[in-house]
Structures are given as structure tokens and as C-alpha cells.
């Protein structure tokens, strides 16, 4: 079976009256975005009107804290050429794709939640007329502590990375900010509440 056999090609942009909402969760490294998305997915498990996107990524299947579909770069490129993604992008040496079949969920009026990137929100905006951004952040000192605890970067590299990054979403988007500087339970309740608001809108 080919790599893209179970992903259908993307159609043109959804009509502006499409009922469903695409919620894109973004945030800097160390903010806990993946953890909060996993907790939210567990909370909404079994809800037919809530769909969490399983991204296609050119990294090993057991890498990171995200349930994703792992493919080679060659397979990803072939899928992209055949229109298998609603949105795709490249960052930090990896390629990411949102499968085109999310449009089916949106056409049914469902809430679709995807792990995204602030740098490509314009692509999501071009693809999805009803778009909500959930920006997971934390105080800089909290981010620095979490990033250094990973042991992948020196303190100097972490601080340089934070100096280069912004904690806000720039542009004309509908944004809800969630501060994950405190307890995980507080942030979990915040993201679930933000998604609850979107259900049935």
C-alpha cells in the first residue's frame, strides 16, 4: 500500500459557511502544548463532534510527546504533491502535514483540533474560514527552566532561543491565551474550557 493510500487529496478551500471550527494550538517550546493537547484529547475521548488531528511528520514514530504518523521525507513529498494535506510546513528540519480529510469533519459541523505553528497560521487561515487559535504560553523563567531540564541545550542557548521568540500571536486572528506557568491542572481546565466554548458554536 502506498504511503498516501488512506489520505484523500485536499479540495479547494472550505466554503465560508462551513459549519465546523478548526482550533489550532500553538506555543513556544517548553510551554506544555503537547501535554495539554493529550489531556484534552483524553477528556473529549468518545465525543463524535470533537476530532483531534493526527499529524503526518517526518520523524520517528516514538519521538516526541505526540501521537503522529511517521513517514519518510520522500513519502511526505509524494503525499504533498498529490494534495494529501490541507496544510503543510517545514520547521527545525522536519516536515509537518495536516491530513486533508479534516475537511470532512468540518463539513459535518465538528470541532477539529490541530497542533500547529505560529509561523504558518496564515496557511491555516487561508484553508479554514472558521479558525480559532489557542496560544499556550508560560513565563520566560518557567520556559527556561523546562527547556534546561531537557538537557538538550546549554543555559546560554536556551536564553538566546527565548530572546528570539515571542510569546504572543501576531496578526488578525481570534486568539485565546492559556498561561501554563502554574499547575498543570489549572492549564488543563483552561484548555478544556476554551474548547467547550467552541463546541456547538
What does this structure look like?
It contains seven helices and nine strands. By secondary structure, it is α/β, with parallel strands linked by helices. Strand 5 (85-91) and strand 6 (94-99) form a beta hairpin. Helix 1 (33-43) crosses helix 7 (184-198) and helix 5 packs across helix 6 (155-164).
Quick summary of this structure?
This protein is α/β, with parallel strands linked by helices and 201 residues long.
Structural topology:
Elements (H helix, E strand, L loop, with lengths): L20 E6 L6 H11 L6 E3 L3 E2 L11 E2 L2 H9 L3 E7 L2 E6 L2 H6 L3 E5 L5 H7 L3 E7 L2 H10 L5 H10 L10 E5 L4 H15 L3
Parallel strand pairs: 1-7, 1-8, 2-7, 3-4, 8-9
Antiparallel strand pairs: 3-6, 5-6
Helix pairs in contact: 1-7, 5-6
